[in-house]
Amino acid sequence: MPESPLHPAVQRVVEAAARKGVTLDIRVFPDGTHTAEDAARAVGAEIGQIVKSLVFVAPGDGERKTILCLVSGPNRVDLARLAAVVGEPGVRRATAAEAKELTGFTIGGIPPIGHGVGLRVIMDPDLGRFQTVWAAAGTATAVFPVSPRTLLMLANAHVAPISEERRQADVLAEQAGLTAAPPVQEG
Predict the structure, then answer these.
(1) 16/110 Cα distance (integer angstroms)
(2) CA torsion 45→110→126→20, rounded to 10°?
(3) What CATH number is associated with residue 141?
């Protein structure tokens, strides 16, 4: 039985990697991997192995400057740190519409590569703690495993500390599996 063709967004990611001599192992899931937690469950990985591709914008001379941050699953981008790293004090998180317009991909499936335009890419050093990380492959149902070193090369990224400091108690709770969201109270 022949393989089904890849979604056009996933195909763009595969082709971007191939241009740099890398063959990706795309995994497609029937249910979406919209959150880092969803993706970690789907691939059987730690949440820290999930690459969140987050889009930020900064005001420029007549046009916005786009910054893509590749962030480890449990981490959050610290805007002040990001502004210092990129030298753009007005940097802010892109809206969903801006992210789609600037990258060509929808939030939940934004990959680290394959964008129609050149983006400045900053990579969270925490991703380097793992042998393999998992990144979105262009849709909310497609991901690929990659070494952090290969990801760095594919995305032409700069590694810099852009994440908020995490409290030791939060790190320990995460390691103990105690980070589930509290139950929603009905009433």
Answers:
(1) 14
(2) 100
(3) 3.90.960.10
